[in-house]
Amino acid sequence: MVNLHNLYRGLALEFHPERLKQPNAKEVFTIICEAYDVLGDPFRRAIFDQYGEEGLKAGVPTKDAFIHPYHYHGDPLLTYREFFGTDSPYADLLDYLKNPPAIYETAENKAVKEKKPPIKHPLVLTLHEIYFGGVKKMKIHRLTFVDEKQTRTEITEKILSIPIKPGMRPGTEIVFFEEGDQHPAYEPADVIFITEDKEHETFVREGNDLIMLVDVTLEEALLGTIVTVNTLDHRTIRIPITDVIDNNYEKIVEGEGMPILEKYPEKGDLKIQFKICFPNYLPKASREMLAKGFQLAKLGGGCRQHEMINKLVLADKILRVGPEERFPPI
């Protein structure tokens, strides 16, 4: 994941008009600074992510208030100055003079400490942890200095507290700067945890939605059923299915998915998909009744065959009820 501040630093220095003597350098520099002015502010970035540039610059009506249009102040050097603390196109060199890199000495010479490549670890999270958020503790072992001259190291243990935001997506990188091994000749590496979703027994995560696969019998597929869902927040909900279920049927339950990271506490949807289990055997009477239903449906144009079958099944059930159990005539 690209760090926004590092990206802006590099592009702003590269396209500074006094540093890059090109005809369109100022225009590109202005675009870079305006983009950082938007993306560097969490509120503006949230509006841009949801409504795009048009919504950001035109304003957005909401149920509570009207979000006023965004207008860039038009001074890219102001944005540059607020970030670097100077108008100089050589801010990187000034920073180098103020904060020179660490030096280590050997018996033969002096050298600049190079930083070790980042150390990446997978961070497997359950859907329950992602749903509620919180803090996850991870233990690491690393070499640390044990003397004042910083020449000797020993293995030590450290507990890192990793913040988990509700709705955090897989592939998110959580960086702990310079938490790697300490060494006289190197700067410690960054430790990066990369999130992964742990497999769940019921749900599969797809963006902000949860997918649930349910097995139903042919009878349930034709006549309807009720699906019981045990949610991640420990509720039990019952979803009536009254439509005929086919291989492409999907029941969407709004607001029962995962938290949306940028819009918390809003949630995605629960999408229930179905696998129809056909019977291994059908009695002759059942075959004849189904055959009759399909034949009548074809005679009627071949459309909505399931309605005809439903009526036949219902009529068959009524005929099976004894006379003494039937309702009296109206």
UniProtKB/TrEMBL annotation:
Pfam families according to UniProt: DnaJ, DnaJ_C
UniProt key word Chaperone: yes
Identification of the protein by name: J domain-containing protein
Organism: Cryptolaemus montrouzieri
Domain of life: Eukaryota
Keywords for this protein: Chaperone
Keyword Cytoplasm: no
Domain J intervals: 1-52
SUPFAM superfamilies: Chaperone J-domain, HSP40/DnaJ peptide-binding domain
InterPro entries per the UniProt record, alphabetical: DnaJ_C, DnaJ_domain, DnaJ_domain_CS, DnaJ_subfamily_B, HSP40/DnaJ_pept-bd, J_dom_sf
